[in-house]
Design a protein that fits this description.
With 329 residues, the chain is mostly helical. It contains 14 helices and no strands. Helix 1 packs across helix 11, helix 3 runs parallel beside helix 13 and helix 5 packs across helix 11. The chain is globular. The model has no long low-confidence stretch (mean pLDDT 94).
Length: 329
Amino acid sequence: MLDSFLSGAAFGAALAATGMYQPAVILAQMKLQNWQMVQTFLTASGASTLLVTLCQKLGYLHAKPRGYSSLGLFGPLDGNILGGCLLGMGMTLSGSCPGTVFAQVGTGVSSGLYTLGGAVLGGIIWSNFLRSFFASTKSKSKVAPPKSENLSIYDMLGASQGATAVGVGAAFAVIVAAISALDLVKTKGLVNPLTGGLLIAGSQVFSALVRGTLLGTSSSFEELGDFVSWFLKGGKGKAPSSTTIAVVTGMIFGALGLSLATPLPQSLPNLPFSTARLVIGGVLLAIGARMGGGCTSGHGISGISLLSVSSFVTVASMFAGAFGMAAVL
């Protein structure tokens, strides 16, 4: 459990250093006004892809591409698409995501507490109602399950893992360079977006080496929902898993520790979101992430680094939902 806590602390401190945890930075990204978040995200994902592939080749990590999240509604990736869209909508409503909310709480961003409360509520709803409902629809579905050889980008392309990782890293680097050349980044945190992305990738490698697994945060909401169910049943039987709860607890303390060690710049003022908006956004964050089988960290950083088809689909759906919600608000 200590290794999970320490991995989370490293991740939380890295997120706090980037400054992209700030609600105004996230919302400005969704309105295409400031590209700090995307530049940091792509740097982290690209570097993680190369480093994770190297760890796998050297035998330090044994992780398979993430599977599809199927709800049995219209295709094997329906959960990734619908969940990603709901997650993105929640990001725009709350100015947060299932990972940055813990950095917000750790650094004292007041809106983060309401978003986290909504996400915990979403986790309870998912664990006690929606999870079993979608399991039932999936069991009755006639949608064919995905073939194992279609889980990764390199298998679908018929290329090697190493070559595909280099290609993805290069593509992300081109986009990151274009963002810089067009001067689309208007703010920065304690470090610039490129350095911040590398710090996040470094925390990913730390988790891989210390725990033998990659980072993810949204399953903590499902774990909390399972604990609520377990408690209401009198605590009978084996207690639910709390591994990811340990990770996100470490994230809060990691972000808190960095904020106490050095003043963190507030690049944009906090946004006057209503409590209802933040709570609803938090609910969508949790339900969307669990429906899609992961979040901005589980899919966006870890899943992409494993070159998982489902992760690319989920992240694309996430930004589509976020941009769409920003356009109508």
